[in-house]
Amino acid sequence: MNIGEKIKQLRQEKSYSLQQLADLAGLSKPAIQQYEDNTINPSNKALQAIASVLGVGVWSFFSNKKSKLELADFRLGDTLIDAEEEKKTIHKDIVTNSQSYIELEAILNEQIIFDNPISDLIINTYDDIEKAVVKLRKKWKLNDNPIDDVTGFLENKGFKIITVDRPTQSPGLCGRIKDGDLLIPVIIININQEHTREITRKRFTILHELAHLLLIWGTHVDKQMEEKLCNRFASALLLPDGALKEYIGKDRTTISLEELKTIKHVYGISIQGIIYRTHNIGLISWEQCEKWLNQYEVWRTSDENFGSYLKSDEMPSRFKRLLAKALVEKKISREKAAELLNMKIDEVERQFINKSFNLN
User: Which among 211, 204, 186, 206 is positioned nearest to 121, based on CA atoms?
Assistant: First the structure.
């Protein structure tokens, strides 16, 4: 049921004519008619006036029908401590978090339908991975630019990214949720300290899981090769070959730590990842790569400062951003916000209500 239908339903429940509702709300009869016909959308001010007359909250006009979500598929990742218990818990987390997210998107009419730009490619080799990344970056209009906030970028493409804190060996998982005919991709990131000491590691994990969701494997790709190909995808998407070639140049035999740190600061990939990537795109031989990796180990064991990636903490933010918008525009109540956030009402008020500005 859309906004207009709900206004009409509530008006008729009150036995108001179009003219009566218009007079009481300080609006015109044609405006009410257009709202109910969905010819135009009412402003927030008009909705608040209508809601006040009808004795309901503004959020009553927005669809909050819960979707019946189910898991279409789910990748477990590495061995879990208690496999059966972990599976049940993680499945519950995915559905519960996604349920609230999808309901909020419906209230605001801000659903993002996921589209896989490389679903026509079959992946068998590392060369296929490089071609897939080039196509994906072109489709997503990234060119050779860095992805400053991987999490935010993917959230805006329709991915649901959920965090869990569990002492498991698995840094990331992924799956798809079925909502009617829609398949919604979900990436689950383990924020246990073991897996998030370095932001570049979290970024790599997110894109590794993205590879599992996007890539279509050839019939001869086994699980071990699939993991290697996903690793190549993650590093290639983080650091495109054109950018790396421009930074390093050709015929290099040595490289300074400061150069590597600069690339890390800009593209958000680890020093070790940069070294491997330099070999992957043919700038250095495997023998030279091994020498660089050995030098990296010397630096690492001597507690050398490798710098930090500071552009993003790679935490999901879209859900809270949408909730704050819905709350201050009075499309949901404080009680509804508390329910969606699993938070006390006074905490909702402290975070979202007491720190808002009036734009009028």
Answer: 211
Structure tokens at 80: 């879990």
Closest C-alpha to 50, from 65, 29, 73 = 29
Which comes out higher in pLDDT, residue 46 or 68? Answer: 46
Strands 122-123 and 216-217 come out as: parallel
pLDDT in tens, 171-192: 888 888 888 778 889 998 888 7
Does the pLDDT of residue 71 top 70, yes or no?
no
> Do residues 95 and 71 lie in contact, with contact meaning Cβ atoms separated by under 8 Å?
yes
Which backbone phi and psi does 216 adopt, to 5 degrees?
-105, 120
Q: Cβ neighbours of residue 173 under 8 Å, at least 6 residues apart?
A: 74, 75, 76, 77, 90, 187, 188, 190, 209
| More confidently predicted of 291 and 83 | 291
Residue 130 neighbours by CB under 8 Å, 6+ apart = 232, 236, 241, 281
Q: Domain spans of the chain?
A: 1-61, 70-301
Share in percent of the chain as helix, strand, coil (round to 5): 55, 10, 35
6-17 exposure pattern, b = at least 16 Cβ within 10 A, e = fewer: bbbebbeeeebe
Residue 255 to residue 249: CA distance in whole angstroms: 11
Provide the CATH number for the domain formed by 1-61 in this structure.
Answer: 1.10.260.40
Cα–Cα distance, 72 to 342 (Å, whole number): 26
